[in-house]
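Hallway conversation turned thread

IA: we were arguing at lunch whether anyone had actually written out Branched-chain-amino-acid aminotransferase end to end. Turns out nobody had. So, for the record, here is the sequence (309 residues) and right after it the structure tokens. Reply here if something looks off.
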Amino acid sequence: MAFDDMDVDTIWMDGEFVDWDDAQTHVLTHSLHYGTGVFEGARCYDTVDGPALFRWEEHLDRLFDSAKVLDHDIDHTRETLTDATLSLIREQGLASCYIRPLVYYGYNSLGVSPKDCPTRTTIACWPWGTYLGEEAIEEGVDVMVSSWRKHASSQLPTNVKATGPYLNSMLAGEEARRNGYVEAIVLNKEGNVAEGPGENIFMINDGELFTTGVSESTLDGITRDTVIELARDLGYTVHDEASIGRGELYTADELFFTGTAAEVTPIRSVDDTTVGNGSRGPITEELQQQFFDLVEGRLDGYDEWFLEV
């Protein structure tokens, strides 16, 4: 969905609510040139008890941790960012939405060093459905292994959600789409599975779950962590620091992506090789249903993960 097609009109910028079309920055903004911003992607779900932010505190933790690594000094408290987000959702009448906080170095100088540039903070919210398409939730997606490799943590911090490194994700994803696939899988420098361009990946074999961890150059995803906990609560064995070879993708019983945008999306083929029976597998379906029951407020025992709007 294009922004022009959405009924949203306000963005929060450094303590002020501004009109959507006026939320602008200078063309010589440091982060525009060097990719020195950090960001988050969170969701507000329309639960049975009304709109609620899902795992907002964990998203704030990662935002502030990412900012610390890039030497950003966020001039706003967690409470301020939370209040701004809740106000945006309420004032725009959003029952459910995607939330994008962004922290970046602003306009002042254009040397590689950002030391003279101010840290700016913005928050935007808008309606956004399933990232890989509504039909993908039931039918799954066709993916390819990208020729691009995921950078190692010795090259760029892989535990940081920063803007610059997403060039890697863009290249991998666009390569896949040019070749007729919905999404990509990216290998790490050793040639093992890392993740998707914007998703973590799970493999299921013989009733057990395997997912790559931070040692494989993956982002420690919050949806990934959610699915791990849900799976264990259902009695499944989860190997959360697995090393998955490329060949194992082709022989897996089931594969699926997780992510704030992608939520839980089955993978039905890799490089034109059918995964399992070529449709959403039974364990994937069970975990997917459990996840959507959770975020819609129909599961007991997870109240601490929600902040009511």
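OS: looked through it. The CA atoms of residues 54 and 306 lie 5 Å apart.
IA: good, adding that to the notes. The radius of gyration is 19 Å.
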